[in-house]
Amino acid sequence: GQTQFGVCIARVRQQHQGQDEASIYQAILSQCQSKREITKDDEVKR
Which terminus, N or C, of the chain has the lesser number of Cβ atoms within 10 Å? Predict the structure, then answer.
């Protein structure tokens, strides 16, 4: 879960080195699914 997500973030940051934070963040969201899925579940429960 969380550890794998952290590894994914590190990998994406390395791939997008030198780009602005917004671009990196978008890449993290699209490539590291676990956090987005957790957020979706939370929204459904509310």
Answer: C
- Give the residue among 36, 11, 35 at the shortest CA–CA distance from 24: 11
- Alpha carbons 18 and 16: distance in angstroms, whole number: 6
Helix axes 2-15, 33-45, angle to 10 degrees: 130
pTM for this entry: 0.59
pLDDT tens column, 13-24: 999 999 999 999
The token duo for 19 is: 């780009």
b or e along 6-29 (b: 16 or more beta carbons within 10 Å of the residue's beta carbon)? eebbeebeeebeeeeeeebeebbe
